[in-house]
Amino acid sequence: xxxxxxxLRRERIQPNLKTxxxxxxxxxxxxxxWLFILLGLLTFLTIGFQVEKAKAIxxxxxxxxxxxxxxxxxxxNFQRYSSPYGYRWNPDGSTGWGFHRGIDIAAPSGSYxxxxxxxxxxxxxxxxxxxxxxxxxxxxxxxVYCHLKGRPQKSPEGRYLSDLDGSILVRQGxxxxxxxxxxxxxxxxxxxxxxxxxxxKYHGSYIDPALVLQAMYQQxxxx
Length: 223
Hints:
Layout: H1 2-65, E1 80-83, E2 86-89, E3 97-100, E4 103-106, E5 112-114, E6 119-127, E7 131-138, E8 141-148, E9 151-155, E10 158-163, E11 168-171, E12 175-176, E13 181-184, E14 195-202, E15 205-207, H2 209-221
Antiparallel strand pairs: 1-4, 2-3, 4-14, 5-13, 6-7, 6-12, 7-8, 8-14, 9-10, 10-11, 14-15
């Protein structure tokens, strides 16, 4: 009887062992699959970091080698820099962090905004965050001006910014020289106070405008 009981137990154990033997290769394969996925992700992140680092070095070198003698500071009646480029806590009181793709330059409402570098007005628009905006392209650079007074208008000739109180009329497609008044500081879009949000792109990628202003200052003032 004991032998029979042992035999029955043995018969039950053997299928379990067979099942374990079948599962083991599957678990091994799954483990190797996850390992390769993690290694691939690590490689991807490493390459991405190296690419971004190389791009940052290229942009930094470009900024240093470029002549900024003909450019203009973008705001009259400058008061202070109210928000830098990069991650920040949402200034409107909403929960969470956001990436700020420019710098905020505080000035009294109605202060004139000057075009930073000579180029073509490629966009006159309005959106929820930026408000009334103007975008100018100067070769490989683009500069974005947000929260302006006035509203974009349409005509048979195209879009334009109209701010009659400030005698501002800027047409999309026109060429504007550095230092030209292209708008006034307002509070359109998402903003907690009068300021210019100024963004700068190099080959389509946003960069820290403070790097450009620092290079301008060093060249023009001789710091």
